[in-house]
Amino acid sequence: MRLRKSQIAKRRVMVWYLLGFVAVQVGLAVAAEVRYAIRDPEFDEMRQIVEQRRAEAPGRPLVLLIGSSRTKADLNAELLNHPEDPGAPVVVNASAAGAGPMLHEISLRRWLRAGIHPDLIFLEVMPMILSAREGAPVEENKNSERYCAAEIAHVLRYCAEPHRLCWRWARARGMPCNEHRVELREALHIDVRADGKIVRPSGRDDFGWAAGPGSIAPDEMQRRIQNDLEYYQSALTQPAVAPGALRALRAFIHLCRKEHIAVVLVAPPESSVFRSYCPAAAASQMRAVHALADELGVKLLDHRDWIDDAGFWDGHHATRQGADQYTQRFAREVFEPLAARIRYPAGTLASGGR
Amino acid sequence: MLFCSQQFVSFFLIVFTVYWATPWPRGRNLVLLGASIYFYAYWSRWLALILCVSTLADYWIARAMEATPSARLKRLLLLTSLLANLGLLCYFKYANFFLDSLREAAGALGFETSLPVLSVLLPVGISFYTFEAINYTVDVYRGQVRAARDLTHFMLFILFFPHLVAGPIVRARAFLPLVARRKRWSWLRAHAGVVLVLLGVFKKLAIADRMAAYVDPVFADPLVHSTLTLWLAAVGYTIQGYCDFSGYSDIALGLAYLLGYHLAPNFNMPFLSANVAEFWRRWHISLSSWIRDYVYFPLGGSRGSRLKTARNLLIAFTLCGMWHGAGWNYVVFGICTGFLLIIHMLFREWCGGLPWLDKLLRTGPGTAFRVALTFTAFCVTLVIFRCPEFSTGLAMLGRMFMPAEGAGFPLQLHGLYLTFAVVAAGHALGCWNWGERFWDWLPEPVRGLTFGAALTLAIVLAPGASKAFIYFQF
What ipTM goes with this model? Predict the structure, then answer.
């Protein structure tokens, strides 16, 4: 009798263990839903950077460089800022690794919700990430854990196979202690360096630029190029563009129009190895982007050959020198003529960037 | 497939479900055997085949040994089994070490040699299952255990996946009856198993792997660090080693419980030991008792003169050191431990003649002093154990005892001290059984939340890539 009682007691305790674990996961999932620091620490970091830069120069126009890891590494936004000029805009590189049109649109909505209203956006349009790799947008298999429930409901409309994104998102929210392990460690300040310095996990500087390596051994560079070509092979050789990706891009531009934000599309630099990997597919992808730019009346800048091959460390992300070279040319030929039009008071370019 | 990996969790859940869903005892044993072979073959199919073949050989040798009336043939069969098991161990683990040592010795004497370097893949856990096979054949030879009739039972004894790759080293006389016994589901045992698994996972991920983040950079270049940093790193490595290995043992015991098996504990709060002899009765109990029963006692144990006892201790612990790996640092670690035990033996005898000193050392402060001294001695020997180059180990010990300026830890120290405090609190709670009583006193919902929080914390603190258990290499 006593044995039976203790068996029942232990069974009840084990049910409590299970419930306790589930309760902690639910708590973390709720925290992830409401806090960018857990769900999308890169956005949280960018938001802090933008707020700091704006606090230093209140009232100035705001220019955001939005893109993927390519733009994040390629454009040294500090070089585009002129703090000594009281009318010059504040420029921040607000790109996120792995981002494409779907995350870009969501990010823009987040910026606006946070009360951050950019005056001009340079939006990276990488033809490869628009391609219909394996029938779906390249981005469809990424970033699910970065979205909150409402955002997931929004981006599902761009997906060819929505259940895949839903499943990944549910897995991330269902077991946040595993899926958001790195973010939770950062949020808890577990690995603080002895000198007390906070090292941004994304490697960004105070203007959002994540500098690549200064130089790289030729063998290592070749190895990385081969790795990345293999990884993106199906996207580079797919001539068709994913309709969902184009819809997300279109929605981004429409939102900019609605909010009176000027937008310029930029095809980011890449090495000749990437450009020549499958020229027919690249040309087809670029045609689709051109058609969209024409349809929406926005400017499309093709910068694919603006950095020499030696300025990349893996064929499509710039080294420090490559980024400086590209940023200087970008400032001279693109940014300064446009920036002259959005000097304080802001908003004069709002009717469109074309 | 590491215990703290997602693959293993999936693997275990499948095995657990199929095992308890199988109604026949024989079927359950076959499920476990199949799972154990798969578990080992996940690392290397080739090595799994060798392990199965050597297990089969031991099975037949033991059967033949029991069947034969000839003592001479019995001895011959035992010798064959020992040679086969130790031969495999020596080939896989020590061949290159011996060849390297020979080459260096010849070089030192001015001879040129062209000894080959063998390309050998070290089978995971070879030291553990070799010792299990040896204890079986020796016990059958001595008549202490009956040779297993059922091949499945014997193979499960060697291959049972919870203890296969890093122990504890189980004894045939304890394990074989368990295999034969019919298992019934018990919530009491399942609860004990789950708590042990949680404890092991927490020790491994939240303590041992955290310690590695502090300790590894210091041991990588000890000569640039300050004396204080080196001492903290030595203590950190001792705690890392303990939590890594005892964490593995706890998980192994917990998994075995969940499958209806009871394995003997491998650790018993060793850092509370008041002397070196007691320490080795509490640390890696299954290895030290194996060494005692199959090396130390056959050599004569402590029955002879003081000199003979000292010799036996030195031999037993040199072998114990070598068991840990093929390197001079392990040999020296074993020799140092042997000497510490000899010193302890002599000191104890000397104390016998000084009752006031004996009484003083048995008071509270005296015991605390002895515990601290034992812990420090073990930390110091582990410095030799941890440094791959013996000369580096010596240089590090030199810096530890001669105050020197130098670099500190790359990370802030609060995490290190917090981890030390957790281990100390764990020992304090375990010492008087407060932990269990406190746990049972807590309301069930609080226990549930604490369990959930501890498991979550362990997963969050786990390093990015799974770190293998230290004892896998042995």
Answer: 0.76
